[in-house]
Amino acid sequence: MEARQRRSFTDDYKRQAVDLVTSSGRSIGSVAKELGLRDSVLRRWVEQRWAGREPTATARRPTTQATVPSADLAAEIARLQRENERLRMERDILKKSIAIFAGTRT
């Protein structure tokens, strides 16, 4: 029984294959079939491109470890949390003031 040889592709070929999927509007399956690739291989290249990583010959399956948010993302999350807390406080103040002003006048 003969072992299958693992094919390797250049980075340029991978970029062109991903560009073909994104620019043509065709499905990954149809492009993969046309290029003689497995769907899963081309899908992984496309996902790597969408994640901001270029598909490279040395890249393997993405790790399952959680990624640490960048400093910009962490700052944006902190800003949104502060704004959310401020808006909750304003909402609560309005709820309490309605109870005061809705009372009967004598």
Labels describing this entry:
106 residues, mainly alpha, 4 helices, 61% helix
Kindly state the mean pLDDT as a whole number?
A: 80
The main β sheet shows up as:
none
Ranges where pLDDT stays below 50 over 5 or more residues in a row are: 58-65
What is the tally of helical segments?
4
| Strand percentage | under 5%
Cα radius of gyration in angstroms: 26 Å
Structural class: mainly alpha
Gross geometry: elongated
What is the H-and-E element order? Answer: HHHH
| Gap between N and C termini | 99 Å
Number of strands: 0
Helix-residue proportion = 55-70%
Describe this structure in words.
By secondary structure, the chain is mainly α. The protein has helices at 11-24, 28-35, 39-50, 71-101. 61% of the residues lie in helices and 0% in strands. The protein starts with 10 loop residues before the first helix and ends in a 5-residue tail after the last helix. Residues 58-65 have low confidence and may be disordered.
SSE inventory with pairings:
Elements: H1 11-24, H2 28-35, H3 39-50, H4 71-101
